[in-house]
Write the structure tokens for this entry.
Amino acid sequence: MSLSYVTLPPPAVPAPFRLRALSMENVDGLGAVYSEPEVARSLNFEVPLRPETIRQKLVGDLDAMRRGESFRWVLCLEEDATPLGYMCLFNWTPKDRRAELGYMVSRKLWGQGVMKSLLPVLLRFGFEQMGLHRLEAMVSVHNPASLRVLTRAGFQREGLLRGFTAAVTGDGFIDMHVLSLLQNAWRAAAK
Ligand SMILES: CC(C)(COP(=O)(O)OP(=O)(O)OC[C@H]1O[C@@H](n2cnc3c(N)ncnc32)[C@H](O)[C@@H]1OP(=O)(O)O)[C@@H](O)C(=O)NCCC(=O)NCCS
């Protein structure tokens, strides 16, 4: 049987958190986190975020996960299933052993080292369970916290995609950093 969210359960993360596979049941709760203005702005969504915009995105994500193209998890507390964030390994190309990393946590958790504690678990899952050779990430030039999270974990900046995404504000285009971490470098650093 091929690897998918059905065959690989969500990895364990440090207390007080846990991950649950994305499901229809948590789409609305996750939408509430995406709707936090600073989260929405960081991810180039409109503010205020229309419930339909995020619902369509998450239903599309769920379909991609069910097709076996990604792993997508909702972050919550061990004792409380209310969504607090979203972690994904997506655009998975098994032939090239490559995938893209995505993450988001509720504004109320920012700056407390939450991503610092979760990222090693996501990297281990990608490189060991999925057998990835390359993990990549794209980060807006307006998102220094995310750039820091990735470079601190060993990702290398490879370049800049100029004018890559239309700003939802209608105010021009956003440049994106491209970063990657290769399995060998991760292994060497994880020893
Ligand atoms: C990016 C995000 C996941 C970071 O999560 P977090 O749990 O707050 O991250 P951490 O606390 O582990 O680390 C944040 C790091 O960024 C640094 N940082 C925060 N704001 C910064 C800024 N404006 N400029 C530079 N560095 C900044 C912090 O100092 C910290 O680095 P340090 O530990 O070396 O001091 C969170 O801000 C988020 O969910 N943002 C909205 C969604 C998003 O942008 N996702 C990424 C899309 S690519």
Summary: DSSP finds six helices and seven strands in the chain.
